[in-house]
Structure formats: C-alpha cells, structure tokens
Amino acid sequence: SQKIEQNSEALNIQEGKTATLTCNYTNYSPAYLQWYRQDPGRGPVFLLLIRENEKEKRKERLKVTFDTTLKQSLFHITASQPADSATYLCALDWGHGNKLVFGAGTILRVKS
Amino acid sequence: DADVTQTPRNRITKTGKRIMLECSQTKGHDRMYWYRQDPGLGLRLIYYSFDVKDINKGEISDGYSVSRQAQAKFSLSLESAIPNQTALYFCATSDRRPGQGAGETQYFGPGTRLLVL
User: Fold this and answer.
1) How far is A50 from chain B (nearest CA, A)?
2) Beta carbons of A99 and B40 less than 8 Å apart
3) Is A40 part of the contact surface with chain B (CB cutoff 8 Å)?
4) Of A31, A99, A104, which is closest to B42 when you measure between CB atoms?
5) In this predicted model, what pLDDT tens digit does every residue of A78-97 receive, in sequence order?
6) A98 touches chain B (CB under 8 A)
7) Positions of chain B with pLDDT lower than 50, given as ranges
8) What whole-number distance in Å separates Cα of residue B93 and Cα of residue B35?
9) How many helices (H) and strands (E) does chain A have?
10) Is B40 left (phi over 0), alpha (psi -120 to 50) or beta?
C-alpha cells in the first residue's frame, strides 16, 4: 500500500530564514500532491497543489517542488515569520476517485 | 459564516453509547468526507460521498456509519462508541466541475473533539 512520510520531528527555525519541509512517498507517483496548513484545534487549510508533470509551483512566499524520480516533494517558506508556525500536511491523490491520503504532518516553529 | 460547520465541537460520551456528529456546508459542493485525526497518524478517511445517493467506505469504516441527508449535510454515527474512537473528527468537502480532472482541493470544517470514556 502507499506510504507517506513526513518528518515527525518539529522543525525549529529563526525568523527570516527559509523553512524546508519534506514529504516522501513509496510505490508509484501520485497524479497530484497537495500541501495543507493546520493550526492547533482547527481544520487543515489548502495551500498549494502540484501535478506530476510539474516540477515547481510558487505562491507568494511558498514554493513546492515535486520530484517523481526521488518520490519526494519539498515545501519551502521563504522569509519565514512566527505566524508561519503551524503543522504542515502533505496529501497525495493517486487519481482514483479523488481520495486524498494524508501524511502525519510536520510541526514548524518559527522563532523571532 | 463558516462554509463548513460541524456540531458538536466537543463531545464526551461513555462506552456503548450511540452518538452522531453532524456536518453542514454552504459551499454547494457535491463531495463530502469524514476523517479522523490521531496524534502521529495524520488524517484517515472514514467514509466519503460524491453525491446524495452515493456512500463509500474509506480506510477505517469499521464501527462507523454515515448518512447523506442532503447535498449540504453529511452525518457520522458511532453506533456503540468505544475508547479507541477517541479522536479529532473532521468533515471536508470538495467540488468537481465538468471537465476538471482529479486533484481539486478539500475544504475542512473546524473539527469535533470526541472523548469516549
């Protein structure tokens, strides 16, 4: 079965630096990969979607890459701010009826 | 007002009790989902529905049932609650427009925190 791995250890970085989060998966590549943000006690909120034929997608300070050879997506937040502190989830869609499979998420803490 | 609402937001119940969690949406989406979230395990799909007459089991449907009463309403029931159903439950919606492939985003409710004693 498909497996998704996100770093279970929290990522602590200094304000202004670039945060890089990793999402690895096994077996065959998904048709789409999405990143969500989740704040404590709240539901996940969609951030970015990247398709298997895309290498990179950007939105303001956010950038996602998708490497189907490495079976990995990287999520970057440039010029990070304390308000970026949250849990970030990657979600994979293998195109079978639009069911997303979520990773467990990585906690990001940005310190001022 | 929130597009996806869940009631109750918090619930404490006892083993063996039947409870229902409700989800309503004003986004006009056809697709609705129920997930549970446990620490370290991420979100796991319980049931999903692509329209009012469609109900599908997800990854972990045992012990749960659902009802899609209308396009806007999707409820989750625990027929006989047990302690390992203690978790955070989320409802989500998504929309597939004609000609659009898979990969549309999901919109989540605020969650229901359930404790089964």
Assistant:
1) 9
2) no
3) no
4) A104
5) 999 999 999 999 999 876 66
6) yes
7) 99
8) 11
9) 0, 11
10) left
Q: What distance in Å separates residue B16's CA from the closest CA in chain A?
A: 26
- Residue B83's pLDDT is 97
The model's pLDDT over B81-113, given as tens digits with 9 standing for 90+, comes to 999 999 999 999 988 655 455 557 899 999 999
Write phi, then psi, for A84 (nearest 5 degrees): -80, -10
Question: A10: pLDDT confidence band, cut at 50, 70 and 90?
Answer: very high
Residues ≥6 apart with Cβ < 8 Å to B52: B68, B70, B71
The span from the CA of A90 to the CA of A84, in Å, is 16
* Residues in chain A closer than 8 A to B42 (CB atoms): 4, 89, 102-105
The answer to whether the Cβ–Cβ distance between A43 and B96 falls below 8 Å is: no
* Nearest-angstrom CA–CA distance, B5 and B72: 10
CB contact under 8 A, B96 and A98: yes
Q: Is A89 on the interface with B (CB under 8 A)?
A: yes
Q: State the DSSP code for B2.
A: -
At B37 the pLDDT is 96
